[in-house]
Design goal:
Order of helices and strands: HHHEHEE
Structural class: mainly alpha
Number of helices: 4
Helix content: over 70%
Shape: rod-shaped
Strand content: under 5%
Largest sheet: 3 strands, mixed
Oligomer: single chain
CATH architecture of the largest domain: Orthogonal Bundle
Number of domains: 2
Length: 251
């Protein structure tokens, strides 16, 4: 197999790898978008569950305080009756102190109930907002999931086709050359580069003149001394005024 044929196979392989890389990026993006919405929905549902439990606990505490408040009101009335029935100053003072203590406890419970009412109102508002967001997010997932799944299926098919085409190209390359290509591709997405004037079109740095003269004979591949890509010579298009052919390392 001539080096020109190997160059053609390398360029085809690099183009296929670029396509597969693009497909993988699209797959990751679409899967990530859908999974991100599902994760957000799960967090929202967990938050709603916690907020509802907190609200239920506040309402239970408020109910208990309201019962206690009514009991204190009854105790205050009984203490007033005791004050009216007092027969001397000592009994009168004792009844008065009891009334004052009960009134203070009564005010404390009223303030606590007021704080709970305010907190419960805020919790209900937060739950309503979260519930509205949950409904919207669920609708977005239900609406986008079928389209996303169809797109993912199409991309999976396209990737499988490109992978099959890649395997066919790989089978035509010399094993040593393919291993070198794969070794470089582990470090750089594009493992090949061409030159037509002594400048590597992968890193845009000049190669040694002796290496360039050797490459022009197209007898073997070289490694760019700067970026380590597989480097090969490709003469410019003969048409006057035309730009050099696009370099696969810039795909």
């Amino acid at each position: 197999m001539s080096i020109r044929e190997q160059i053609a196979f390398l360029e085809e392989l690099s183009a296929i790898d670029s396509d597969i890389r693009r497909i993988d990026e699209q797959l990751d993006k679409q899967r990530g978008s859908l999974e991100g919405m599902r994760s957000e929905l799960q967090r929202l549902e967990e938050r709603l569950k916690g907020d509802r439990e907190t609200l239920a606990a506040m309402e239970k505490t408020r109910s208990e305080l309201s019962i206690e408040l009514r009991q204190m009101s009854n105790q205050i009335e009984r203490s007033r009756e005791k004050l009216q029935r007092s027969r001397n100053e000592r009994e009168s003072n004792a009844a008065q102190r009891e009334i004052e203590e009960l009134r203070k406890l009564h005010r404390d419970r009223e303030e606590e109930i007021e704080r709970l009412n305010s907190a419960a109102e805020g919790a209900r508002a937060a739950i309503e907002q979260a519930e509205a967001k949950r409904v919207g997010l669920s609708g977005a997932i239900d609406g986008s999931a079928p389209g996303t799944q169809a797109s993912l299926a199409a991309l999976d098919i396209e990737r499988a086709q490109r992978a099959e085409a890649r395997q066919q190209v790989v089978s035509k390359l010399p094993v040593v050359l393919y291993r070198r290509y794969e070794s470089i591709r582990q470090r750089r997405p594009v493992a090949i580069a061409r030159t037509y004037d002594g400048t590597c079109l992968g890193c845009h740095l000049s190669v040694p003149p002796m290496m360039f003269q050797k490459m022009r004979r197209q007898e073997e591949f070289e490694r760019c001394p700067h970026c380590a890509r597989i480097l090969y010579y490709m003469p410019p298009e003969p048409a006057a005024g035309s730009a050099p052919p696009a370099d696969p390392s810039r795909t």
